Amino acid sequence: MAGEQHTVEPGTDVLIRKVDSHLAALRGGLHGAEFELAERLARCLRELVLCTAQASAADRGQVRAAVHYFVLRRESRGRLLSVRSLAAAERVVDRVARQLGRVDLLTELRQDRPTPEAPHPQTLLH
Hints:
Strand content: under 5%
Distance between the termini: 33 Å
Helix content: 40-55%
Largest sheet: none
Radius of gyration: 14 Å
Order of helices and strands: HHHHH
Structural class: mainly alpha
Number of helices: 5
Number of strands: 0
Oligomer: single chain
Shape: globular
């Protein structure tokens, strides 16, 4: 899909800004492989947001839930890792991408290990 033009729908830019803002916040605390994973997740989420901008409400809802799962990680005290790890966010994003038939977005994600069953994104927000 490189070079394809996407029409930005209302709400799409908000989700992308949330992803970008969260990635910027992580830049100060994560390094090396952890930050690279966060960048890959952000890149995948941005593409999912764009490719579902005119999709069904159910598909957009799955992507919105995955964005919120990535963005709304609750931080622990001090410099400890977050309660929701990037690995958990990876599983959620991976599952949504697979359900939407966008396995091409998974090629950069860590596929050297089997992905455990992730919770359904819709149930994560309740």
